[in-house]
Structures are given as C-alpha cells and as structure tokens.
Amino acid sequence: MAKAVHDAGGGLTTVGMAVGTPQYMAPEQAVADPRTDHRADLYAVAAMGYEMLTGRALFAGRSPQQAVAAQVTEAPVPLDALRPEIPRQIAAAIMRGLIKDPEARWQRAEDFAEQLASDRAVAPPRRSRRRVAFLAVGAVMLAVAAWTVVRQWKGGTPTPALSVVAVMPFTVRGGSQLNYLQERLAWADASRSSADQALRYADRLTAHHRAFLEAVVALRHGETWKSEAMFRDLLAAYPDDAEAWYQLGEIEFHGNPLRGLRMAEAWSSLSRALVYDPGDLGALYHLLRIAARRDDPRELDSLAARFFELSATGDRTQELRALQAFATGDTAAEGAVLAQVARAPENALPLIV
Q1: How far is CA 127 from CA 88, 123, 222, 270, in A?
Q2: Is residue 169 within 8 Å of residue 53, measured between CB atoms?
Q3: Contact indicator for 139, 87 with CB cutoff of 8 Å
Q4: 21 in helix, strand or coil?
Q5: Which CATH number is associated with domain 1-175?
Q6: N or C: which end of the chain has fewer CB within 10 A?
Q7: What share of the chain is helix, strand, coil (3-state, %, to 5)?
Q8: How far apart are CA 182 and CA 319, in angstroms?
Q9: Backbone angles phi, psi at 292, to 5 degrees
C-alpha cells in the first residue's frame, strides 16, 4: 500500500484521472492488486452513491495519500448513522458496495441496479419534504452509473429495465473536496455527463422531478439564465422544494456574468431552502458568507452556531471558523485559526476567497 501511495504522489488529483480519484478508489486499486476487475467500478459507483446521500465524499477532508490509505484500512461511517431517513434498502445496497473484500461486495452491476430499483426502495413518507425534487433524479443517475459498468465490461448499450425508480437524496452540488480550480473543472465535466445521461431516462420521472432535472442540465451546460428561469417556474408550482431554492440561491450568489453578485436575492432563496431543510449545510455556508459581506456579526455568529452544531468537524468548518473570527474581529479566535493553519500540512485547508 505504501508503495502504491508513494508512486501515485501528487498525481492523484490530476484532471481527468478518474480511475485514480482517491475518494472513489477501491481498496484493491489502492494496493495495485493485479486481480482488480469490474468490482472496483462497482465500489466507485457505491462511493458516488454515498456522496450523493450524505453530501460528503468518502474520507473527505484528507490529503489524497491519506484518503487512499483510508480506503484500505478504514470503514466508512454507516449511511443510516449519517442519514437515518434514507430507505433501509438503499443504505444496505450502498454499504454492500463499499465492502473492502471484493468477494463480499456486489458481484454484478445488474444486481446492484435492481436492488436500488426494488419496490422496497420507495420514497420516504410525504411528511419528509426535504429535497423532494432531486430524490428520484439521483436514483436515475446512480442506476445509469451501475449499468454503465455492465456496458464497459460486457459491451453493448446499457438498457436498465427499471419498473420502479429507486428514490434517494441526491445533491447536484459540487463535491466536498473540490476546492481548487482544476478539480472544479473536472467535476463540471463529470456533472454534465451524468446529467445528460440521466435526461435520457427522464420519462421515468414525475413532471416535478423532470423539470428539476432539466433545470440542472441547463445549469451544467452553462445556460445560467435559462436555468434560473426554469427553477423559478418550478418553484412557482412546487414552492416547498428545498433543493430548488438552494440551486436558485447558488445561481444568485455566484451571479450571472452580466448581473454580478446578487446577495439580497441569494439571501432570500437560501433562507427559504433552510425553512424546508433546516439541516442544509450548503445553504448555511452561503448565508454565512453573505452575512460576512454584510458586516453583520450578530447574524454571522447565529448562523455559525447552527453550522457548527450540525458539522463540528466537516470540510468547511475550519474555513468558516476563520471567516467568523476575522469578520467579527475576535483577536483570540484569529490567533487560534492562524496557529492551526501554521500546523496544518500543505493544501490541507481550503482557501477563503
């Protein structure tokens, strides 16, 4: 394992090197096992599903070398511990795909896909309205990925025979580790491809979910204004769609090229996302950034307390502690942040822009 990690070196984050992406690398790949086969691809699909469901990649917040080592030596936190509302059938299917021993993992992509689409893997009760639109979208995209493995290893075109669309909480947001430009470019390309493939099976979705997917596809292709209009139309029909509010808020936060940053609009949309999903860390993160720009220390402290309660050690926690310290002028907190940065390994902490 040490040899494999050393030989990989910094190249693990090279753009386009999908097979070597640490968060999706099967243990047998990490140790350069010559017997590695299609089951490593199924591990990667399960890792992608884990990230879709939890909002964070496997072993997030670590250097590439540490993440590779963890793939071999550490078990991921069980899905039902992080997201107890996930259907049991879905959680079990993903966790089986992440078993270290290939012999105990899913052996066939067909079985994995069918388990995700089982009649037992149904949507949660209607009382749970969180991120409604992207639930079915994520299942379609993950099933497409599983069937792509079949195509790669058997040849031909994948034809998933799904009688029921499995439902899972999937976020179309960027990965938790994508803090640098080259990684964002790699994610953008992968995200467009996944969305385009999912659109091929959009007839399996409800009108609500199909409208959401179409808005996502437009956004992934850079048609920002078109996507914004589509999300607004969707929210006019489905005003309690937390994820659609988040996506609209992100568009407004980052701004269209000719319209610039629109903080007041973004604040409104992201606040609505939190109304329907109080645990949305992405919305909280953006609202914290807006509060800092507004020079509103009271609001910043309130939002930070909510964020840290939900994610005491997440990828963005140190960044937001630094933002809070310097935005509020807390000299003691500033000193603590600078001391931690000085102790951290190179590239271990995200930059605050």
Answers
A1: 17, 11, 34, 21
A2: yes
A3: no
A4: coil
A5: 1.10.510
A6: C
A7: 65, 0, 35
A8: 20
A9: -65, -40
